[in-house]
Amino acid sequence: MTFGMLPLVLLALGLAGAPSPAPGPGALASLSFMAGDWTGEQDGLAMEESWLPPKGGSMLAVHRDVSGDKTASFEFLRIEASADGVTYWASPGGKPPTPFRLVEISATRAVFENPDHAYPRRILYWLAGDGTLHAKTEGTLGGQAASEEWTWHKTR
Question: What is the Cα–Cα distance from 153 to 37, expressed in whole angstroms?
Fold first, then answer.
């Protein structure tokens, strides 16, 4: 290698180790795979999650778990695009929303994070090859690593 190529090699090495930038507001359209009505059952709990498609810079959703003939839990969800990125806002049980920033996106997978929130710290959604939508939360509960995963089938 000649001395003249050294700056190019150093630049390439520096870029290779640099973290990728956070997804911008245009990434909202890539979340279309989540849109629709989804249902599943887990441990006797009937689960529903309905997402409106991206429009006007946002996606809106509601989640409901039903045990027998009674609502066991519910959550209001929204994903909003702004100049500095995309944020997932979770409001379990109608509580004030907690933000999670979009940190990874592909055509069938999204990862949202809030490093200041113990549980969940990460929220993942992905569309499997069989057409099922999966969601997973990860974080720390009582000083221990914890996670929970859901699987839903599209009904509309």
Answer: 8
